[in-house]
Amino acid sequence: MSKFLVKSFFWVTLSEVIYNLSAYVIHSGMGRILGPAEYGRYGIVVTLTTMIVVLIGQGVPTAMAKYLGEIYDTKPGLVPIIKKQTVKIQFVLIGAVTVIFFFLAPVISLILHDKTLTPLFQISTLVIPAFALASFYFYYYTGLHEFKTQAWLKTSRAFFRILFILGLALLLRSYGYALQGALVGYILAPLSIFFEANLLDKFKKVKAEGFFDWRKLLHYAWPMTLFLIAYEFLITIDLYLVKGILRDDTLTGLYNGAITVGRIPYFLFYALTIIILPAVSKSTSSNNHAETKKLIGQSLRLMVMFLLPIAILMAVYSQPILQIFYGKKFLGAAGPMSILMSGVTFLTIFYVMAFALNGAGKVKAPMYISFAGLATNIVLSYFFIHQYGLSGAAVATSITSFVAMVLVLAYSYNFFGYLFKLSSFLKIIIASAIMYFSSTFFPGGHYAFIFWSAILFAIYIAILFAFREFGSSDLELVKQLLQKKKIKTAADVEEEAL
Question: How far apart are CA 177 and CA 160, in angstroms?
Fold first, then answer.
């Protein structure tokens, strides 16, 4: 990785960590304020509404980020043109979806066997345009490689969402409208970020020059949108099936807690997708295949190296982790969460590699794999939930995630070539297995597990050092993050341009 990409990954990852910490503060607070049953209803409404935004609101902006990433430094006059075309398409698309979702709220509630969800879905309708407005600027700055600005906006959004969501929930709690207050908070938080981002954008004065065919946005966006639709349903369909099949708000709330906490590793590595998409898009558009392969290979190796131990430690210490987030009422989710950690690992690898392929213009393969995974998860979840309840849902999702990961890695190997040395993978697996078996000698405890986790992770890194898998080259990446700025030479400028 170039120094620019390493530093970008650092800032974006830091903002993602802060943002997702805010999410867990909110979920922890809402779980305690509402209790398992109401928290289950909260999870259903918020998950579905925000999923609609992901399904519809990110396809075209992602296409914008791809094309901006290709021309932002060579043809700056096209930047305002591409931006304006994206705004027009998004206005029509999001407006139509918002209206449709409002009128379909009673139908969705009927499918979920709970008519009382209808007014909650209708309140949350305005979350769709609010999230879409904030997401638009998120991808806009991604395409321009302005990752520090993007990181600042993401961090600001973290604080706004805590302020509005938890603040309004607590304010209206005594009146019996805590859930409704939280939903209004979900509208106000992204709107605040939109106004902040729009204000920053006012300082950019670039003259529009050139021609860009707006149909390119749609040509790239439609398979990307379908990929996001299938993917979002793939990772959430188990929650809806738990609600629809078991018809128990408490069990739904427990499973929502297991999913929410279990996805911490996924959100930590989500930053990779933000960096990889425009970077791969730029290198492939320049026919720099060696740089593309190097970028993806290094990203995949480092992701697997740190993803596996995190997932294992969270599976081992699921009970104390859930107790910290939600309290003892949610300890029943520990078993499903431990199972889900394997699925989260597979799913994270799938998602990052899917975005690498999307950046290279291969958007249809991830789309097809996602739809295949969705169909598999529906079938497996239906039978496993009937048979094994919450644990069955977790097993079904984990099996599906493994299949999706294998398929995307196979396609990536066919397209990019050899990315990851088998010897490196085996060393990481062995070190992870030793760490897991060592964990049986370390008890959990309410907070003691944090100390034991640090020791176990140190053992894991020591084993990789002994295997010569983690060494000076990896430490150099860390050094690049910490070193002071220096005067740029021509070579530095050239390197950062890659």
Answer: 20
CB atoms < 10 A from the CB of 301, how many? Answer: 18
Q: What is the pLDDT of residues 422-475, one digit of tens each?
A: 888 899 999 999 999 998 887 766 788 888 899 999 999 999 988 888 766 665
What tokens appear for 39 in the block?
């928290």
Instruction: Give rounded-to-5 percent helix, strand, coil for the chain.
Output: 85, 0, 15
Q: Which tokens hold the place of 212?
A: 């860009």
Closest CA to 89 of 155, 123, 136, 144: 136
Burial of 475 (0-12, 13-18, 19+ CB in 10 A): exposed
Give Cα separations from 20 to 75, 133, 262, 267 (angstroms): 35, 19, 12, 7
Collapsing DSSP states into helix, strand and coil, what is residue 71? helix
CA dist 84 → 97, 222, 411 (Å): 20, 19, 35
Contacts of 231 by beta carbon, 8 Å cutoff, 6+ apart: 351, 354, 366, 370, 373
Q: How does pLDDT run across 256-311, given as a tens digit for each residue?
A: 889 888 888 887 777 676 666 666 766 666 666 677 777 777 778 888 888 999 99
Integer Cα distance of 27 and 166 in angstroms: 9
Q: What does the alpha-carbon distance between residue 384 and residue 486 come to, in Å, rounded to a whole number?
A: 58
Which tokens hold the place of 341? 């950690």
Residues in the chain: 498
Give, in order, the Cα–Cα distances in Å from 311 to each of 148, 373, 402, 422: 28, 21, 14, 21
Give residue limits of the domains in the chain. Answer: 3-497
Residue 145 to residues 66, 123, 224, 336, 411, Cα–Cα distance (Å)? 11, 35, 20, 39, 27
Angle among Cα 45, 50, 51 to the nearest 5 degrees reads 100
Rounded CA gap, 123 and 127, in Å? Answer: 8
Residue 366 CA to residue 224 CA, distance in Å, equals 8
Q: At what angle do helices 127-143 and 59-71 cross, to 10 degrees?
A: 20
Cβ distance 496 to 2 under 8 Å?
Answer: yes
Residue 496 pLDDT class (50, 70, 90 cuts): very low
- Give me the helices (H) in 360-447, please: 364-388, 390-416, 422-438
Q: Is the pLDDT of residue 386 over 60?
A: yes
Q: What is the pTM of this model?
A: 0.70
Q: Which residues contact 104 (CB under 8 A, 6 or more apart)?
A: none
Rounded to whole angstroms, the Cα distance separating 444 from 411 reads 40
